[in-house]
Amino acid sequence: MATYREQGIVLRTYKLGETDRILHLLTQGRGKVRAVAKGVRRPGSRFGGRLEPYSHVDLQLYEGRNLDTVNQVELIAPHAGVRADDRLSAAAAAMCELTDQIAQEGERDNALFLLLRAALQTLEADPPEPAVFVDAFLLRAASIAGFHCYAGACAICRRPGPHAFLSVKVGGTLCPDHAPTGTRAVTTDVIDLLMLLVAPGEWAALPRAVADDPAAHRVAGSYVRAFIEHHLNRQLRSYDLVPR
Fold this sequence. Notes:
By secondary structure, the chain is an alpha+beta fold. It folds into 2 domains: 3-78, CATH 2.40.50.140; 81-241, de novo design (two linked rop proteins), CATH 1.20.1440.120. Helix content is 36%, strand content 21%. A hairpin with a 5-residue loop joins strand 4 (56-62) and strand 5 (68-77). Helix 2 (86-102) runs parallel beside helix 4 and helix 3 (110-124) runs antiparallel to helix 4 (130-144).
């Protein structure tokens, strides 16, 4: 069997037989990889504790027909602090659930890998409002997957905003010319927060924005969930566990 080496982030794990575990990994060079870690649940396993959810690892794997096989593992960032805190773990679970849904096996997606790595590093710093980082991650990951939320311009005509009307179906804000009759306007604070959520690389300003206007975050958060579930056509089960 051919071997290869990759950096990866553990998205999820589940049991196989009495001692093995199946892993879903987001790798930097091969996109999503499904692999088996043999004997990893056996007491004294040499790398059992290194393959926990959210861990950033360096791996050597054997290529298989259906599942690859983990042969070596070195920890880069364990993110143990994220797993140990219920708030942070719930946030990471929502991020990894979406990643597992949109990442393609065998298709390199460095942008998605770097986004998830940055998001987990941010959670490791124990931010006061992890939910806002979840919302930012979801919108930015959806954009990478081809579903962009237009917060700074009309989603139909691209007229620069800000605009006061929001559409889940169209995918962002709508100018008065394209907003359906009876569409309820949202506050400028909601639109400003959405613009911050979708902005690439903007993490540091998020907690302050939420602290200044929690009501705007509640509205923006409900929109984010509706947008993601509508355009990806699937529910995010982990989202309800994120404290708000």
